[in-house]
Amino acid sequence: MNLVTLLPFIAIIAAMFLMTRSAKKKQQQAAQMRDQMTPGTGVRTIGGMYATVKEIGDDTVTLEVAPGVHAIYAKNAIGAVLEDAEYNRIVHGIDDVTTDTPAVPDDASSLTEAPKTDLGKGEDEAPKLDLGKKDEPTGDDEPKDGKTDGEAGAK
Q1: Are strands 42-45 and 50-56 parallel, antiparallel or unpaired?
Q2: Quick one: which of 39, 55, 76, 135 is 20 to 30 A from 144 by CA?
Q3: Residue-by-residue DSSP string for 6-51
Q4: Three-class SS of residue 105?
Q5: CA–CA gap between residue 41 and residue 35 (Å, rounded)
Q6: What is the pLDDT of residues 7-44, one digit of tens each?
Q7: What is the C-alpha separation between 65 and 50, in angstroms, rounded?
Q8: Which pLDDT tens digit goes with each residue over 43-63?
Q9: Is the pTM above the cut of 0.70?
Q10: pLDDT tens-place string over residues 86-135
Q11: What segment(s) does the record annotate as region Disordered (predicted)?
């Protein structure tokens, strides 16, 4: 067999190997993340719900989704294990980070500048061009023979 005929098969096998390798890495990272869970840790489920871990079983996790409300989830349903500061910032709105960046105003009126006017302009400037709609046609556009496009015998 020629090397040129085997080259596409080798490329396909190499691509499949690389794809399965990256998928295995992602699975290992997810398993390590789930192993970091301890009771009291804040988590986000794959559905986007934030909760606190109460108990950890072999394949399940008991989460407190609201004060006094517990729900049992599969470990695979945990999308992310959050640090305490991040969990408190998202769920309780507690922001420990102080920044020196200015606050964004509620409206955009303070972000725009007033138009600058030049008072030193002379009177000899050309008038501004009006790009608005024109008034009704004056009738100069009518054909001389009186026929329009919609009538029989029109050109």
Answers
A1: antiparallel
A2: 135
A3: HHHHHHHHHHHHHHHHHHHHHHHHHHHHHHT--TT-EEEETTS-EE
A4: coil
A5: 12
A6: 888 899 999 988 888 888 888 888 888 888 889 999 99
A7: 7
A8: 999 999 999 999 999 889 999
A9: no
A10: 888 888 787 765 556 666 666 766 666 665 555 555 556 667 777 777 76
A11: 93-155
Confidence at residue 4, expressed as pLDDT on a 0 to 100 scale: 82
CA distance to 40, 73, 87, 117, per residue, from 83 (Å): 11, 20, 6, 54
| Beta carbons of 96 and 83 less than 8 angstroms apart | no
CB 73 within 8 A of CB 60: yes
Amino acid 86 reads: E
Among 70, 99, 94, 74, smallest CA distance to 83 is for 94
Cα distance between residue 89 and residue 110, in whole Å: 29
Q: What is the rounded distance in angstroms from the CA atom of residue 9 to the CA atom of residue 87?
A: 48
Here the tokens at position 15 are 């691509």
- Distances in Å between the alpha carbon of 133 and those of 39, 130, 137, 140, 142? 70, 9, 11, 18, 20
d(CA 38, CA 70): 16
